Amino acid sequence: MRKSYYNRLLLVLVVNLMLLSSDAQNKTAFKQTPNIILIMADDLGYGDVGFTGNKKIITPHLDRMSKEGVTLTNFYAAAPLCSPTRASVLTGRSPFRQGIFAAHTGAMRPAEITIPEYLKKEGYQTGFFGKWHLGWVEPDKVESRGSYSPPWHHGYDETFATKSAVPTWNPTKTPKGWNSWGAMDDGSWGGSIYVQNGVPVTDNLEGDDSRIIMDRAIPFMEQSIADDKPFLATIWFHAPHEPVVAGPEYLAKYPDLPEAQKHLYGCITAMDDQIGRLRNFLKEKNIDENTIIFFTSDNGPSGPITRKGIASAGPFRGHKHLMYEGGLRVPSLALWTKHTQSGLVSNFQSSTVDYLPTILDILDIPAKKGIPLDGVSFKSVILDGSSKDRTLPITAGYKRLYGGTDIYAFVSGDYKICIPNKGDKMMLFNLKKDPGERNNLAEENPKLLKKMTAELEKVKDSWRLSNEGNDYQW
């Protein structure tokens, strides 16, 4: 009898040890699953950060990321303006497949499969913080364009979001001298408001907008760490989109610059400070080596301030809203401490549509079959420095048919065709020899122009099928 009792006791102990071991292994597995942070600036020009060569701007934290990680010098936005590019980041698909042709002209469809939706199935906690711009975030708000499609409809657990732009300093107030959209006579801001998990926010909305965003992102990450869960944090700053305003501390950093440039650079430096704060947090929590950070901009710099010499697309021609390189080529970094090659500068042609396939590749998650993607994985580029050729061309564009805008760019190898602006004819450039796009080769090489135009039309046909419902179950 006593022997039987001890045998049963021994069996219980063994089972409990096995369960404890299994639980420990599960926790270890979570700790070994990398956290992912997607950071995006808004209207940040290629030439307006230190790591791309700007000697006046103060961006030490981004510059340090460049030295410690991988700088992608040949990185494209999926469109030369905000909403379409944002849709491409989350889905790996052209915005034309989704009906998001320009800003405020549509909303993300529920059937689109997003990065957070993929990652939630893998045990990730998901958070969105900042400028959404893929649909309304207030359910009872009825406006002339767009529809209700908040981030929590697309895989995000925790959200702190605005529908679109706000001032980059004191985001609930109309900036002094600002008399365009959003301006109110009483000094309040009449544009987008912050909504947290569906509820309008009223507290902690003073001062630098980038700090306000990070104040919500860090507690989300802290909770994920406490829960022993990997996290996806999408942090989409408003900086440096207009109204561009910098606080006194940041204006003082640029005493010798013209006033408008003080605000632009000060606003970017304030954003950089918050990126530094984020990195310090990751190190303090001992998770920096288990966290992948991607950084980019949604498009090139705003046209009005670029033409005045305030913002810069670096060596490239054009700006936001144009299909020249200045509207599409954006600063880009990838950092996974102890995994990415420190200081690697890669000229691999990459795009915002590549984020989803790259993340799925890193995590060994298969993409859903039957859903065409426009991106490719650049995992090997950032992890071992492979200089492979891109297997898919890069195609970008946007349209506003009420104003006659229906323009595209198609990049394949060294060559690019594009309709830079409405009313222009298709142009051909050799980007390797002419990155500034000053020499149109359309008349000199009509055969290549015709060939690439035909390839572009095939891509557009595929986009139309997706947009009209071919990819979805109704």
UniProtKB/TrEMBL annotation:
Keyword Metal-binding belongs to the record: yes
Sulfatase N-terminal domain location: 34-365
Presence of keyword Ubl conjugation: no
Keywords, in A-Z order: Calcium, Hydrolase, Metal-binding, Signal
Domain of life of the organism encoding this protein: Bacteria
A Pfam family reported for this protein in Swiss-Prot or TrEMBL: Sulfatase
Protein name: Sulfatase
Family (UniProt): Belongs to the sulfatase family.
Organism: Mariniflexile ostreae
Signal peptide: 1-24
